[in-house]
């Protein structure tokens, strides 16, 4: 096989449902990568907007746009389809409203060349509209730490735009298409257990944007879906992680119909986690969503606003570039 026809190192899979302007921002972040041996597979989940118009701005990127067949299937189905179409040795996931920082793929490529891990992950920075960026997760998983307890006992998060995995393991694991929430931990826990090795890179390589309430494909309430997942034999949680999940994640869904029942669920499972997680869960139940997020961001900002100033400036520059790029297409 000649070099020009050899498979890329990375296939970047992006599910999208409308949000063409945000997709343009994500794709600019890929154009800005210092490492360019990658392909991009955008899976359109039957958008009403003109996604072709958005992707056509990126003829300089190795990009394929594929529309999901048989109606709207969601982000997990889009990621699974992207994985099946991928030619790269590794799949990197990117949500359409997130971005990669310019050195992400170069950093991952260097790590792969050194140790060939089955999976890689890194923190990302959560952006909620001001210059206080929240680091997530705050630490690496321990060598022998149960990954489900990393998520739901110790209240750490590794999310889709931080996950890079060998193509074979991604296809073998598959994203759970029945889930409307908790897709990221479900996939990551199962993929980690199917992998021989996980390399965690300590510094953030992506930005998760949480400044628009409805920006994500899977943003609605999903209590029935996650209860079914929790009760299924396929649920990959340890007993302690299951209790922590009920305390923090399930109680949040229950609170949308009954705050009293949500608080009761938190108290019933309080012995599984650190007291500060219990307090956080109670506050999350009682406070309006906007106030909970503002508080979390304020706490994060006191710790790291100065250290991430350059990243904040990059976010602003990239946002401006995307607005300029999509200006002729606003009517589409």
Whole-number radius of gyration? 19 Å
Distance between the termini: 41 Å
Largest sheet: 7 strands, mixed
The low-confidence runs, each spanning 5 or more residues with pLDDT under 50, are 214-219
Number of helices: 13
- Lateral strand order in the biggest sheet: 3-2-1-4-9-6-10
DSSP strand (E) fraction? 5-15%
What's the number of extended β-strand segments?
Answer: 11
Q: Could you describe the 3D structure shown?
A:
With 332 residues, the chain is α/β, with parallel strands linked by helices. The protein has 13 helices and eleven strands. The protein has a seven-stranded mixed β-sheet, sandwiched between helices. Strands 5-11-7-8 form a four-stranded mixed β-sheet. Strand 7 (124-127) and strand 8 (134-136) form a beta hairpin. Helix 1 (20-31) crosses helix 13 (309-326), helix 9 packs antiparallel against helix 10 and helix 10 packs antiparallel against helix 11. The longest helix is centred in the last third of the chain and has 18 residues, at 309-326. The N and C termini lie far apart (41 Å).
Task: Give the topology, please.
Elements: E1 10-16, H1 20-31, E2 38-44, H2 51-55, E3 63-67, H3 75-85, E4 90-93, E5 99-100, H4 104-115, E6 119-121, E7 124-127, E8 134-136, H5 147-152, E9 164-166, H6 167-173, H7 183-193, E10 198-200, E11 206-209, H8 223-231, H9 239-254, H10 259-268, H11 275-286, H12 289-304, H13 309-326
Parallel strand pairs: 1-2, 1-4, 2-3, 6-10, 7-11
Antiparallel strand pairs: 4-9, 5-11, 6-9, 7-8
Helix pairs in contact: 1-13, 8-9, 9-10, 9-11, 10-11
């Amino acid at each position: 096989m000649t070099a020009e026809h050899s498979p890329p190192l990375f296939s970047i899979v992006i599910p999208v449902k409308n949000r063409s302007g945000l997709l343009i921002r994500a794709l600019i972040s890929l154009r800005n990568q210092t490492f360019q041996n990658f392909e991009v597979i955008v899976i359109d989940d039957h958008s009403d907007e003109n996604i072709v118009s958005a992707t056509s701005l990126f003829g300089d990127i190795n990009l394929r746009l594929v529309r999901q067949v048989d109606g709207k299937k969601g982000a997990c189905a889009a990621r699974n389809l992207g994985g099946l179409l991928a030619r790269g040795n590794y799949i990197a996931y990117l949500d359409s409203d997130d971005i990669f920082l310019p050195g992400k793929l170069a950093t991952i490529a260097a790590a792969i060349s050194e140790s060939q891990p089955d999976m890689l992950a890194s923190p990302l920075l959560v952006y909620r509209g001001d210059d206080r960026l929240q680091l997530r997760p705050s630490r690496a998983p321990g060598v022998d730490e149960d990954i489900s307890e990393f998520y739901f006992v110790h209240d750490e998060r590794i999310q889709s735009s931080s996950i890079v995995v060998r193509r074979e393991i991604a296809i073998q694991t598959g994203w759970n298409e029945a889930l409307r929430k908790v897709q990221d931990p479900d996939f990551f826990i199962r993929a980690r257990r199917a992998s021989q090795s996980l390399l965690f890179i300590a510094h953030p390589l992506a930005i998760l944007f949480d400044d628009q309430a409805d920006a994500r494909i899977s943003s609605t309430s999903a209590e029935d879906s996650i209860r079914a997942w929790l009760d299924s034999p396929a649920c990959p949680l340890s007993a302690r992680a299951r209790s922590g999940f009920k305390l923090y994640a399930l109680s949040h869904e229950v609170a949308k119909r009954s705050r009293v029942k949500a608080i009761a669920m938190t108290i019933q499972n309080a012995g599984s986690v650190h007291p500060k997680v219990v307090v956080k869960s109670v506050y999350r139940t009682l406070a309006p969503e906007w106030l909970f997020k503002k508080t979390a961001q304020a706490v994060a900002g006191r710790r790291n606003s100065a250290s991430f100033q350059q990243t904040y400036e990059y976010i602003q520059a990239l946002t401006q570039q995307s607005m300029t790029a999509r200006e002729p297409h606003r009517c589409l």
